[in-house]
Give the backbone structure.
Amino acid sequence: MVKLFFSGRMMWAWLTMALLVSGCATTGTNTTGGTTAGTNPPMDDKLRNGDLVTLTFQNGPDLPTHEERIKDDGTITLKHIGAVQAEGKTVGELQRDVHAKYVPKFYPNLVVTVRAEDRFFFVDGEVKIPNRYVYAGQQTVLRAIATAQGFTDFADRKKVELTRVDGKKFIVDCNKAQKKPELDLPVYPGDRIMVPRRWY
């Protein structure tokens, strides 16, 4: 009896471990409605062209606070050091790069702080609170809709439209995405989600 009890617990432990491993191994291409979204790494923490960045300096007596939108070539221009690549970097990476260009060549004890403005995504249509929402980290279509307090009773959950900043559009079947997380497409800053009305 005791042996059966322990063997049962061992079997349950092995099954739990197997489920965890299989759940963490989900990779591949996101495809919904025949449209491939790709498997690029999340870009939520990367600066992009047009983002507004503010740099403040301590122990740099002739360096005022610098505020600038990242130009089309991906750079910002700073006193003494000129163009600095900002696009594609995190705030922390840009901060380190600027510091390295100034110290110790120009200022031995300079402290650099970089901040970026809030970025947003948009949820519209048949959700309970259509609005723009602050992008605060990794986001997906289902999470974004949850942020908007969920679907209305009239929502067509099978034909949710995701529009990227570059104009590319994807159709997400949210009923399927709830069962298969790989179908729940990532949402990036500036993206728009439109939940259409169900007419049947």
About this structure: Helices lie at 2-24, 91-102, 141-147, 174-179. The chain has four helices and 14 strands.
